[in-house]
Each structure stands twice: as structure tokens, then as C-alpha cells.
Design goal:
A hairpin with an 8-residue loop joins β9 and β10. The chain folds into 5 domains: 80 residues, Roll (Ubiquitin-like (UB roll)), CATH 3.10.20.310; 84 residues, Ubiquitin-like (UB roll) (Roll); 77 residues, Ubiquitin-like (UB roll); 71 residues, membrane protein fhac (Ubiquitin-like (UB roll), Roll); 262 residues, Beta Barrel (Porin), CATH 2.40.160.50. With 670 residues, the chain is an alpha+beta fold.
Length: 670
């Protein structure tokens, strides 16, 4: 008997579950919900407001608890839209949910007034209150919602307190609904109270450092308002100052009593307990797979035994993250003993091997394509090796590049590359193979300097210019030089402020004979004005031949004109030229660029620019015969730099000059 009853009950449970699931499926299939009484919003709008609740019903089934939730959320939606007396009830009719709506009158905010505000005008307070100026309220149709009004009053109060009005009180109890019941005049009554300022700062406990140094670390503004959050900020800043000096466990507390304020100035006491000065004991790596733990240890080895310095640690951390060797990298200082700490370095390695493809187009090079194969962890030493092959309509280049950012575990970086290329230039073709070794070091966070040596064998062919003006047709080049970069840009790829100055100088031999010296410099400056970006650039280069100037090979000379120089000329088309109009290059050049860029829509921006520059043959250094460009451009911003289309007009063309030039290119012009 009991068993039979159990079977019947079990069958009923199963049947109920099946009906429950089928009811949910039926609801999901046609979103079976009605909104009788709703007239102010479309059914689509109401469904959108209940999207999450309706999805829950479709997934888990239509039940009274879920229907009640839907009714509550719909009522909340109505109240947010200015229906304070809206009421929503539910009814379940089979697989259909019925949400009965009594909307009531809809109320809009007609006016917003502040009473008692002496320190700030109503327009400023309205921005905090509702995000609109008071004179725009009537036309904006802002729904009246008591909850939102209360939240706005809270924002106004928080603003006042951030300005030092710690006793300020505000409420919207003066709000009145019109006789028609369709508009509200919101009145916020304010009692400002006194404004408190930071008063005398006292350092107590064991400050260690002089008062002037501690005040300098705080960098307080004159007449700064006193607030608890401002005092908390002082505490964090001062504690950070102690940590930067090696006092890793430093504690700072602040004490202030507003009742002791004189003239509104609150005296603040900062109690400093630096504790012991910590040194770095050991580096403890974890998570390495293909990399050896020793690689991690060596990157931080210069910090071991030294006083803990978070700035130096941050620099080492940034160096490692830039290698691309890690998916994640976490460095955690952990105290061991009373005055020592270990650096626990936890890593997750990224895939070391990669292959990349590129496809592009430029006005001068035409269609281009390339492939790059790389290994960031060559021979498991954490050094990258890459092979790149690039083709364009002007030629082909292959390059094998090895980079050692820490040569012999020092701060010197080695870049070694071998390459082979063939290019068709205007008036000649060039085939070359070479080797370049470059050794550089960052002496400061912004200044990098070093030296390089280069060897190259070159053959010039298919010469259509006057052969007497082309220089040697086949030669071996050997050179040594110095280079430096001073970089204060905020971003290397897409700078919006700052400047960079680079320069280099070298001396080279042709076929074993000292032939020429060369020097070049480049300066670029960027600054934003609102949404606009202004950039200025200046470049110059000078080749000093030690013999006949025509002995400088044509492919080593400077050329001017093009998408990154004077943009009213096609690539290399700025004079001097031979009788056939082929560019001959020169031994001295200048380029000056100025550009104003402003966003248009999305990733697109427009630009206006002006360029100037010249190119001089022989041994002359001169600013004579300057050529100019004015023009407009279109930019499409990509994470790795902008795609640019520019048209430059020549405002003062000479005989044989084109009126302007169109350029399609990638990256910044200067």
C-alpha cells in the first residue's frame, strides 16, 4: 500500500516537472506576456526593461515568485520614468504572464532651485544634482523620481564636503508638485556651515626626515580644504615617501580635531613610525617553464643587497613586461625577518614562437606584403630572434635580427642584424647585403645612448641618370657611429604630449678609404588642445665628403619630398635633379613640419598641415631654396599607429614642379 502510494506520488512529481518544463518552453517560444493598462510605452520598450526577468522565466519556468519579481521591476521602471504612483500586479493564466499596470500621472521636473547656497551657483550644483543646467530642465523632460532626487542631493552634499564644508546639510523637502499633478518644482535647501581649511601640519612620532622634506613630499596646495579624504591622502603620500626610502613597513596616522580650528583652519598631526630600513634579500621566482629561474633572478640581481627602492623595482618590472615573454608577471615584496624582504616573482609564460603577416600600400612603394617569424625565447635564454621577409613593388628585403636586452647580464642592449635587399629606386636599382651591430644603454629613464658599426656591400645597376653624377657603381662600406635619444613622449606609438630628440654621427670608409662623415638630428613635439592634437617636427642631415662630392654613392645621399617630408612633392622629387628630371640627392637637407589633427567620427580624424624643407648638393650648408607645402589629410587610428592619406599643395611651384602630391602611408609623418 505504502509502495503504491509512493509510486503514484513519484508519477505526479514527474508529471508536474514535465508540465513545468513545457510551460517554460512555451513561454520562451513566444515570450507570452501581456501588459494591460500600459499606454505610455510600447510593448517592445517594456519587454526590454524586463529582459533579464523574462529570460529567467524562459529558462526556469513561469512561477509566482518570478512573476512577482517581474511586476516589481516593471513598477520600478515606471517610477524611474516619472510615474511615482504607478502600480503593477501580476496574474498567471496558463503559460501566459499578465502584468496589469496602473500608470497614474507622469511627472516631469519643471524647475530646480537651490536655497542657501552662498559659495557655489545653482548652475554648478545642478550639474551634480541632475547633470543639466537649470534652464534646460523644462525642455529636457526629466522624469521626476524621488529616489533619483535623493541621490542627487547626496551628490551635492558630497561635493560640498569635498570642498571643506563638513557640516553642510541639504534636503529636498521644499519640493512641490503642481496642481495638475504633472510637473514638479524641486527646491533644495542648503545650510552650508563653515568651510574648513588645512591648518598647521605637525609631524610627530619618529619622522626621521626634516620638516621641509616631508612637506615637499606632501606637496600641499595653499588654502587646500580640509576633509577626511584629504587627510587620508596625506597619510598615503607620506607613507609612500617612507617606503620609497626603504622603510617598507612604515606606518603613518593622522589626527585632527575640528573643534580646535581657528579661522576655519584645522591643525593636523601626522604620527610617523618608519620602522627599520629594509634591504632586498633574495629573488624567489615561480611559475617558469621554458625559461630558467636563473633568468628571472638575474633581471633583479642588481637590487639584491640594496636598500629597497620601489622605483627601481618598477623599472625592472617594466623591462620584463616589454619582452613579451609573459602572459602575467607579478612581483611581491615579502618581509623576512625584521629588516629584509624577498622579491617573490610569479610568472605565467606566454607562447615564445610567433608568426605574423602584413599587407599594405604606400604611394611610393605600392602594394607591400610581409611575413615575420620570431622566437622570443631563443635557445631558452629569454632573448628574441626573428626573421622578416618583406616584398613591395619596389623590391624585396630579408632580415635576421637578434636582440639581447641584457648583454652579459648588464644594462647594455645588443641589436645584431644581417640583411639582404634589392630595390628599384627612381633612376637606379640597388642590391645590398650587410651587417649592423648596435650597442645602447638607457642611462636615465628618458635618455638612451650608444654606438654602432655597419658593413655593407652594394651594387648599383639599371642607371638611367647621368652616370657621372651617380657615384660609385659597386662598393664596400664600413662605418662606426654614435647615437642618442632623449624621449619625453607619453607614448611611443601614439604620442599626445611630450617631445623626442634623436641624433647620430658616424664616419664611413668606402673600399677601405675614409670617405665621409655624417651627422643627423630630429626633434618632434606633441601637445593636445582639447580634442585636437598639434605636432611640430624638425630634421636636418649633413654629409661631409673627404674627397670629391661625386664619390658619395647615390643611395647614401639624402632625398627630400614625400609623405613624411615636404608633402607637396612626390617621393624624392624635391630638387636637385639631372637634365632628365631624375632626383640626384644631396649632402645637406632640412625638413620642418607642423600639423593640427582633430577627431571627426570614431577612429577617423582630419588634419591640416604645413611643411618646409630644402635639399642641397655639394658641400654647402644652407637654408636657401626652401620649398613649401600646405595641405589636408585624413587619419584612421589603429593601435599601432595611424593610416594616413594626405594631399599637399605647392604654394610657390617652380618650373617643372607639380602643383601638389597625394600620399598614402602608415605611421606618423614626423
Amino acid at each position: 500500500m505504502m509502495n503504491g502510494t509512493n509510486k503514484t506520488s513519484g508519477f505526479a512529481v514527474v508529471l508536474s516537472a514535465v508540465l513545468y518544463v513545457l510551460q517554460g518552453i512555451a513561454f520562451s517560444a513566444d515570450a507570452n506576456v501581456r501588459f494591460p493598462g500600459a499606454s505610455s510605452f510600447t510593448e517592445e520598450k517594456l519587454r526590454s526593461a524586463l529582459a533579464e526577468q523574462l529570460q529567467e522565466i524562459a529558462t526556469s519556468g513561469l512561477a509566482p515568485a518570478r512573476a512577482d519579481d517581474a511586476a516589481w521591476f516593471l513598477g520600478a521602471f515606471y517610477r524611474r520614468q516619472g510615474f511615482p504612483s504607478a502600480d503593477v500586479t501580476f496574474d498567471i493564466r496558463g503559460s501566459q504572464l499578465v502584468l496589469k499596470v496602473r500608470e497614474g500621472e507622469r511627472i516631469f521636473v519643471q524647475s530646480l532651485d537651490f536655497v542657501g547656497n552662498r559659495s557655489f551657483d545653482g548652475k554648478k550644483l545642478a550639474e551634480y544634482m541632475v547633470g543639466l543646467a537649470p534652464d534646460r530642465l523644462a525642455e529636457s523632460k526629466l522624469p521626476y523620481n524621488e529616489t533619483e532626487i535623493a541621490a542627487g542631493v547626496e551628490r551635492v552634499s558630497a561635493f560640498y564636503q569635498s570642498e571643506g564644508f563638513l557640516d553642510m546639510v541639504a534636503d529636498a523637502s521644499g519640493t512641490r508638485i503642481s496642481a495638475s499633478g504633472r510637473s514638479a518644482g524641486v527646491v533644495v535647501r542648503i545650510v552650508e556651515g563653515p568651510k574648513y581649511f588645512l591648518g598647521a601640519i605637525t609631524f610627530a612620532g619618529r619622522p626621521l626626515f626634516g620638516r621641509d622634506e616631508l612637506l615637499g613630499a606632501l606637496a600641499l596646495k595653499p588654502d587646500a580644504p580640509f576633509t577626511p579624504s584629504a587627510a587620508d591622502g596625506m597619510q598615503r603620500t607620506l607613507q609612500g615617501h617612507y617606503v620609497s626610502k626603504g622603510y617598507f613597513a612604515a606606518k603613518v596616522e593622522w589626527h585632527a580635531d575640528r573643534t580646535r580650528a581657528k579661522g576655519g583652519r584645522v591643525p593636523v598631526t601626522l604620527v610617523c613610525e618608519p620602522g627599520p630600513r629594509f634591504r632586498v634579500g633574495a629573488v624567489v621566482p615561480s611559475g617558469t617553464d621554458r625559461l630558467s629561474p636563473e633568468f628571472i633572478e638575474r633581471r633583479f640581481d642588481s637590487l639584491v643587497g640594496e636598500v629597497y627602492d620601489p622605483e627601481k623595482l618598477e623599472r625592472r618590472y617594466r623591462e620584463l613586461t616589454k619582452t613579451g615573454l609573459f602572459k602575467s608577471l607579478h612581483v611581491r615584496p615579502v618581509p623576512v625577518g625584521t629588516d629584509s624582504l624577498n622579491l617573490e616573482v610569479e610568472v605565467v609564460e606566454a607562447k615564445a614562437k610567433e608568426i605574423g603577416f602584413e599587407l599594405g600600400y604606400g604611394s611610393y612603394d605600392g602594394v607591400s606584403a610581409g611575413v615575420r617569424i620570431g622566437d622570443r625565447n631563443f635557445l631558452r635564454f629569454g632573448r628574441p630572434l626573428s626573421l622578416s621577409l618583406q616584398y613591395s613593388q619596389r623590391g624585396f628585403r630579408g632580415e635576421l635580427l637578434y636582440v639581447d636586452p641584457w648583454l652579459f647580464d648588464s644594462q647594455w642592449m645588443l641589436r645584431a642584424k644581417i640583411y639582404s635587399q634589392f630595390r628599384n629606386e627612381i633612376g637606379y636599382s640597388k642590391a645590398a647585403e650587410g651587417l649592423r651591430l648596435e650597442l645602447t644603454r638607457k642611462f636615465t629613464p628618458h635618455w638612451e645612448a650608444g654606438g654602432y658599426t655597419a658593413f655593407e656591400t652594394t651594387k648599383i645597376s639599371d642607371i638611367t641618370i647621368d652616370a657621372r653624377l651617380a657615384g660609385p657603381k659597386e662598393y664596400a662600406l664600413a662605418g662606426v657611429g654614435l647615437t642618442q635619444t632623449l624621449d619625453y613622449r607619453n607614448d611611443v606609438t601614439n604620442p599626445t604630449r611630450g617631445w623626442v630628440f634623436t641624433s647620430s654621427a658616424d664616419i664611413s670608409a668606402l673600399d677601405g678609404r675614409i670617405a665621409f662623415a655624417r651627422a643627423s638630428a630630429r626633434y618632434s613635439w606633441y601637445r593636445t588642445f582639447g580634442k585636437s592634437l598639434f605636432g611640430f617636427g624638425a630634421r636636418a642631415g649633413w654629409i661631409i665628403p673627404f674627397g670629391d662630392e661625386n664619390e658619395i654613392p647615390i643611395d647614401l645621399r639624402y632625398f627630400n619630398g614625400g609623405g613624411t617630408t615636404v608633402r607637396s612633392f612626390a617621393e624624392r622629387k624635391l630638387r636637385p635633379k639631372d637634365a632628365g628630371g631624375h632626383p640626384l640627392g644631396g649632402n645637406f637637407y632640412t625638413v620642418f613640419n607642423a600639423e593640427w589633427e582633430h577627431p571627426i567620427s570614431g577612429a577617423f580624424s582630419g588634419a591640416v598641415f604645413a611643411d618646409a624643407g630644402n635639399l642641397v648638393g655639394g658641400s654647402t650648408v644652407s637654408l636657401d631654396d626652401m620649398r613649401y607645402a600646405i595641405g589636408v589629410g585624413l587619419r584612421y587610428q589603429l593601435p599601432i599607429g595611424p593610416l594616413r592619406v594626405d594631399y599637399g599643395i605647392n604654394p610657390s611651384p617652380k618650373a617643372g614642379d607639380a602643383p601638389g602630391a597625394l600620399h598614402v602611408s602608415f605611421g606618423f609623418a614626423f
